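Write out the 3D structure for:
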Amino acid sequence: MAKQLRRSQTDRNVAGVCGGIADYLGIDPTAVRLGWVFFTLMGGSGLLAYIICMIVIPSE
């Protein structure tokens, strides 16, 4: 079965988006979170993308 992108229920700080993406890509969730913070600080696009991901990506 193919791997599916889902928001994490166990590795979550806000909505589980970063934990789910990290699980899907097989990387450390801290790296994904730092990327979100970087994009948020560089003009706010990270915050908008996070909100969109919360709505679009289904939960586990």
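The radius of gyration is 11 Å.
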